[in-house]
Amino acid sequence: MEGGEASLADRVTGKLVLEHVSKWFQTSSMNVHALDDVTLRIAEGEFVCLVGPSGCGKSTLLNMIAGLDRPDRGVVQADGQMITGPGPHRLMMFQEAALFPWLTVLGNVLFGLNLINGLSAVERREKAEYFLELVGLKRFMHANVHELSGGMKQRVALARSLAPNPSVLLMDEPFGALDALTREQLYGDIQRIWSQHRKTIVFVTHNVREAVCLGDRVILFSPHPGRIREEFEIPLPRPRDINSVDLARYSTEITRVLKGYVQAEVAG
Amino acid sequence: MITRWLVAALFFSALAVSWHLLVAAKIWSPLLLPAPLSVLDYLRSAVEDGTLFEAMLVTVRRLLIGYGLGILVGLPLGLLTASSKWSQDTIGVLALGLQTLPSVCWVPLALLWFGQTESAMLFVVVMGTLWSLIIATDTGVRTIPPIYSRAARSMGSSGFHTWTHVILPAALPFLLSGMKQGWAFAWRSLMAAEIYVTILTGFGLGHLLHYGRELSAMDQVIGVMIVIVLIGLAVDKTLFAPIERFLHRRWGTGRS
Question: CB contact, 8 Å: B28 with chain A?
Fold first, then answer.
């Protein structure tokens, strides 16, 4: 397949490159080996899902790509440059309400935009409104954060992350705290936005179905220490429906492999 | 809204009427419990000869300057103790200790240091405000969910911008309660200081109260007490209530 070869070539250079990355955390009682020799290449415009049980270091990995954390060993690069700190090209979206309660919905979306130089106040405002429109919440731009439902909050968070026009979007279990119905709506939204705006997305989740529904690739981690165990290409056509049978076939397979790691760990 | 006003008006009229009836029943000597009308008489004469207004001005000025100074110094110090272990173990512990000291205890020291002057009064007010504001700011900043600054950092905020745009606004509910507490301490300590010592540079409400006692002028004592209560209420309603309403609306906490 031609498309497959192109993306393979892209991955060799790679939008995001992680090479032999290791990370330890020192807690008061023990030294945790969070990531062990992780190597991963992600192509421009690719949607990659990182899946694994808790403690497999997938959020740590995301933090390192965001520049909020540094590897103890190995290299993390974006566009061929070492990542030395956070930047507006790589924005992070968190699991729950990282929205600022002292700002309105509009104020939250403007927060990231205000940190970008070279935009006039009018342009910032227009961009903010555009992205609120995109997530279907323009009507609520003057609302306070506490007046929104959980799903609406995550939509605002999505608009806030998209507004500064990052090339990489990092999502740390962004729908984990939502009910199933709201989640399904957001799967649709995020696929639509991704196909329109072609961001590189790294999406962390422990929900295999969710990963198969969204990702071009699903990367499986095992815990203690966090390691990449297996990769699955998901060549299903988009937009994908999380309830489709084809999708279920993939997720059943991946879940089976994942269970193997968890059981191996319990046994060993 | 109008009913609420009506209920309040009714309540306070009833209070005044029962006070009047109590006096009319002559259970206590009118020297000890003057009628509401004679208190009103005193207030009117004090307004007319200017003593009340002057005393209010002196007291409120001391309070505002001292309180302002306390906030100006306390807020940065609170931010400092919250952001470094060293300052927490030093200034933080000092503030915690001194906060437990009733601020009227500063009066003897202030008099020896500054004499019977304006500076002594300001010093007492600052000491009343400062420590509780440091503690409140410190607590406020520590209670902020770390995800706020992580999200802000991810969007490129750092250093001073993070302090002014994330940490301070996020700590606002705590700052406000600290400021209210600081205000209450400052107000109490200033009144105590004014009643306790004669200050040569200005004759405040506390002095008016004190001389009311010296002259056994109960109408003056009660009249000045009422004025003090009214000032406290006015400050709460004009200074703090609007900020509180804003907080309730934004954060969605409580009901105003």
Answer: no
